[in-house]
Amino acid sequence: MPDIASVRPIIGLEIHVELATRRKLFADAPNPAHDEFDNADPNTLTDAVVLALPGALPVINRSAIEHSMRVGMALGCQIASVSRWDRKNYFYPDLPKGYQISQYADPVCGPGITNWPINADGSNHTVRIERAHLEEDAGKLLHELPGGGKIDFSIVDLNRAGTPLLEIVTAPDFQSAEQVVNFARFLRNVCRHLRVSHCTMQKGHIRFEPNINCELTLADGSTVRTPITEVKNLNSFRAVQGAIEYELREQPKRWAETGIAFAPGTKTTRGWNDNSMQTTLQREKEEANDYRYFPDPDLLAIEIDAEWQERVRATVKELPHVRTGRWASSYKLDDRECETLIDDPDTADLFDTAINIVGNNHAKTVANLLLQTGMKLAKERGTTAAALGVSAEHIAAIAQMRDAGDIGSGAIEPLFLASIESERGEEPRAAAERQGLIQVRDEGALRAWCRSAIDDPANAPSVADLRAGKQQAIGRLIGAIMKSSAGKADAKAAREMILEMLAE
Amino acid sequence: MGHKHPPTNDSPALLREQTHRIAHLARLELTDEQAAMYATQLSRVLAYVEQLRALDLEGVKPMLHPHDRYGEPVADDPREGLDPGVVRRLAPESEGAFIRVPKVLGGTEGGGA
Fold first, then answer.
1. What's the burial of A314, exposed, middle or buried (CB within 10 Å: 0-12/13-18/19+)?
2. Where are the domains of chain A?
3. Residue B29, min C-alpha distance to chain A (Å)
4. Which of A44, A151, A157 sits opposite B81 (nearest CB)?
5. Other residues' Cβ atoms within 10 Å of the Cβ of residue A126
6. Using an 8 Å Cβ cutoff, are A209 and A190 in contact?
C-alpha cells in the first residue's frame, strides 16, 4: 500500500437539543428539560401517552414547534409550510411504544446555511445545515442503582421519555475539531439566547454526535476515503474535541492496517471514554439501522403558514455572536469579557438594558460592575449575576455615581448588597447616603486633608520622593488622606490636588 | 422517503428469513414453526397489498392520512404526572422508584435516538 502523503478531515455534526417546554412533545406530562421539573423523582413525569397505554393518542405541543422554528431561523433554514410525523421503529426498554415519533420526510426546518466566525483566527466559515427535525427523547436506562450499587438487571426512569428533542444535522463541512467545538459553542449560546433550551451540558440538554472521516492523499497522488465513524452522545466540548482528534489520528492508521476504505455498509458507531480519551466500537451501524419508518397514522400534518412564521420570526432577535461583536466594537470589551457576559442570556440582557438607561459612555463601567462585583456575588451564591436581583435601573444608577466620582470602588459591593437585601431593593443613592459612602468633593475639606497629609512629618520622605519625580510615592499620601477622611475623599480628586499643591 | 411497497414476490424461504429478521429487530424469539406460520400470514397480507399495484395511480398524490385537514397544536400547559405507584404497578417488575427490566446486552443507551 502506498504511503499516506496528507490527510484531509471531513466532519459533520448532529446535535440533539432538549427543548425547555413545560409539557412534553406529544403528552401532557411535565418535561424534565424545563427547570420547573428538573429535579423530579424517577417515574413521576409520565401519563397514558408517555407509557403508551392502549387508546392513548399524541397531541402536538405548539411551543415545541415554535422553539424549533426559532432555531431553524437562526440557522438560516427554510421553514416548512407543511410538516409531518413518522414512526421510527426500534425495540428498547426505555421506549414504551416500541417506536419513536420523529420527522423523516417533512421536518419543520429544511436546508439552511450558517456563516459564523468559528475559525481559530476569528474569521467566518460556512457550514450548511441539512435539516432540523423534532422528535421525542427516550427514557433513561440505567445499569446500576443510583449511588453506584451493582445490579444484574437494568432499571428504567421514564421521566425523559417524550421530552421534545430538536435534532440538527449539518453537512460534512467542518475541517478541524476546533471548528466543530466553536460551532458547538455558538449553537449552545444561540439556543440559550432564543430561550429554547437551558443547554446545561452536564444534564444532557445538548448532545453532540460528530460524523468523522478523512480523505487520504497517497504518495502516488491517488486519494482514498476512510470509513465514517459516528461518535454518540458527547455532552462536553472537551469530549467533542477529544473524540474528533482521536479519530483523525486513528483513521489513517486503521486504513493502513486493514485497507478498509469508505463504502456503503462500512460506517460504524463508537462511544467516547472520558478517562482513556479514546473512542470504542459500539456497533456496526448497518445491522441496527433498519428503523422501518412510516407516516404516523395517529398524527395529522401541521400547517405552518406565513403569518405564524412571521410571528415567531419577530421573537428571533440579535444572535449572541452578533451581540458580542457589537459589544467589542462599540464598548471596547475584550473577548473574555464578552464571553463571560454572553454566557447567561439574562445577564446579557441586564447589561444591555442598563446601558440603554445610563447611556453608551458608561458601558465599560456597567460591564465592570457586572464582571467584578456581579460575578463575585453570583459565584458566592451559586447563581448568575442577573439572578442576584439587582435591577438594570440600580446598576445604571451605580455606574453613573461611580463615573461621576460620587462613590469609590469600595462602595460598589455594599450598594449591590443593599439592592439585593433590602425589601424591594434600596435605591443606590439613598443606600450610599445612609451608609456614608458618598465621596466628599467639598474642595475646602479636600484641601485641608491634603495639606495635613503633606505637612505630616511622617510623610516627609514621600513628599520628597514625589518632588523628585517618583510618582508612586503618592500612594502613601493618598492612603493618609483616605484614613483621615474615613474613606469619604475622592481618591482621584485627592491625587490631582496633591500634585497641584506640590507644584505651587 | 421509503414509503415503497415491500416486495411481495419473494420465495417462502426468503420470507421466513425476513420474518426472523423482523422478529430479531423487535427482540422476539421465534421457533422455525412459528416463523413459518407468520411468514405464511404475512405473505397473505402482502398479497392483499399487491392488488393495489393493479391500479393505475399515475399522478395520484399519496394519501398519508384519511383526514384531509391539519393538526391543531395545543398550548404548552402540563398536567401533573401519573402517581408513580400506578406506573410501577403497570410494569411487570419494579425496583424502588424504577421499572426493572432484563439486562440489555449488545445495545447502546438511548437506542436509535
1. exposed
2. 4-303, 321-434, 443-503
3. 13
4. A44
5. 11
6. no
CB-CB under 8 Å, B99 with A153: no
pTM assigned to the model? 0.84
- CB pair distance less than 8 Å for B73 and A62: yes
3-state helix, strand, coil in chain B (%, to 5): 40, 5, 55
pLDDT on residue A423: 67
B109 closest CB neighbour out of A88, A141, A292:
A141
CA distances from A107 to A97, A137, A175, A190 (A): 21, 16, 27, 20
Chain B residues with CB-CB distance to A44 below 8 A? 81, 84
> What pLDDT was estimated at residue B3?
42
Which grid coordinates are listed for A306? 406565513
pLDDT of residue B111: 41
Cell of B110: 438511548
Q: Which residue has the higher pLDDT, A443 or A124?
A: A124
For A157-177, the DSSP string reads E-TTTT-EEEEEEE-S-B-SH
CATH number for the region A443-503 comes to 1.10.10
The answer to whether A477 touches A449, Cβ cutoff 8 Å, is no
Pairing of the two strands A86-89 and A99-102: antiparallel
Question: Which of A63, A233, A299 lies nearest to residue B71, judging by beta carbons?
Answer: A299
Residue B109 at interface with chain A, using a CB cutoff of 8 Å: yes
Interface mutation vs chain B, best among A83, A91, A101, A209, most B CBs within 10 Å: A91
Query: Does residue A39 contact residue B93 with C-beta atoms inside 8 Å?
Result: no
Q: What cell was used for A383?
A: 447563581
Average pLDDT over every residue of B39-64: 87
Look up the ipTM and state it.
0.80
Question: Mean pLDDT throughout A100-119?
Answer: 96
**How is residue A233 written as a grid cell?**
452522545
Would you say residue A290 has pLDDT above 90?
Answer: no
What is the reported pLDDT for B18? 86
Residue B101 contacts A where some CB pair is shorter than 8 Å: yes
Q: Give me the pLDDT at residue A442, please.
A: 77
- The predicted pLDDT at position B5 comes to 46
What would the grid cell of residue B9 be? 414476490
